[in-house]
Amino acid sequence: MRRSYCLNGPLAVFALPQSQELAEKTCGILGQPLGNLSSKTFSDGEKWCQFKENIRGRDVFLIGSTFSPDDNWMRLFIAIDAAKRSSARRINVVMAYMGYARQERKDKPRVPITSKLLIDILICSGATRIMGVDIHSAAAQGFTNAPFDHLYGHDTVLKEVTGFFADNAITNDMVVAVSPDLGAITTVRSIASRYGWGIASIDKNRVDHNQVGDGLGILGIDRVKNKICLILDDMVDTAGTLSKGVNALSIAGAQKVFAAIVHPVLSGNAIQNIGDSKIDKMWVSDSIPLNDDARLCDKIEVVTLAGLLANAISRVHNDESISDLFPDRQR
User: Looking at the domain assignment, is residue 5 inside a domain?
Assistant: First the structure.
């Protein structure tokens, strides 16, 4: 059932340059014009922005994907500061993708916790609320005392996946949800239990950043034979783990292998890795715009997050519950 949006009081939605298309779709659902935020990069790389309309006393929402992270985190900080100095009533950051989210813990001696550093700067810049889509670790919500809402983009992507399964007579007893590693097993188990799917996990050996060793194992290998396997992950970067996992599942006897992934980072040789793998189809969101090579890959289908963001923005603006967006996750 389509939600009817009734927005109370002055609302203003703006977008960082990379998230312009997603923000336009979101505002279209809200019935709200996208605000005019001018953004420039000078010849030496400095960023600059200006709100081209009055935002004094308004509830401002900044939609932005911080990918590529170095440029777009800086754009976000600057836009927040501009909104604060323009006397916005509230400054709500809607991070469709959070760059540096993988650096959320001290897993080795003498390393930073960069995601906390950036959230600290975000709040110091003037942000009053953060909304993040499938951040790499939900524990990052504890990096600040400001309200931090975790939006589950997987739920939106899975609506398309389950629709595809229904159209192709793939029943729940035929599906096995596959965790990309042991760290994601809790999340994947939760999703699998909602749909009545089986569960298995890839056992990977990460030898370095963006590099996984050969010879991946499958935990629950007896469950994947002649099954439809669906790999669930928050992001796909170089697709090295994904392609090796897909091939391992195929060798283990999987009938077909699909993937549902929220953030299509797709760096390095990702498109080649996906194309060379035995994956049948991969659904991703539009949290990060696809590059030209990715758009031409017939194995990738994009699902928009606009409906999710519109609903979340409306609820925050009207002081309504965000958790009601995800009733299945309240169990």
Answer: no
217 pairs with which residues across the strands? 203
Whether the predicted pLDDT of 16 surpasses 80: yes
Contacts of 86 (CB under 8 A, 6+ apart): 51, 54, 55, 56
Strand partners, 264: 236
106 sits in which H/E element: none
Do 25 and 147 lie in one domain? The reply is: yes
**Which of 110, 112, 187 is CA-nearest to residue 143?**
112
**Full domain range(s) for residue 188:** 154-298
- Those residues whose C-beta lies under 8 Å from the C-beta of residue 105, and which sit 6 or more positions away, are 113, 137, 139
**Is 204 one of the catalytic residues?**
yes
Our count of domains for the chain comes to: 2
Flag whether 176 is in a domain.
yes
Annotated catalytic residue, options 116, 204, 227, 256: 204
Q: Are residues 322 and 258 in the same domain?
A: no
Which amino acid is present at 98? Answer: M
Q: State pTM to two decimals.
A: 0.92
- The answer on 192 and 127 residing in a single domain is no
Which residue in this structure is represented by tokens 């499938």? 134
Cα–Cα nearest to 30, from 328, 310, 327: 310
**Is pLDDT at 205 greater than 70 in this prediction?**
no
In a domain? residue 318: yes
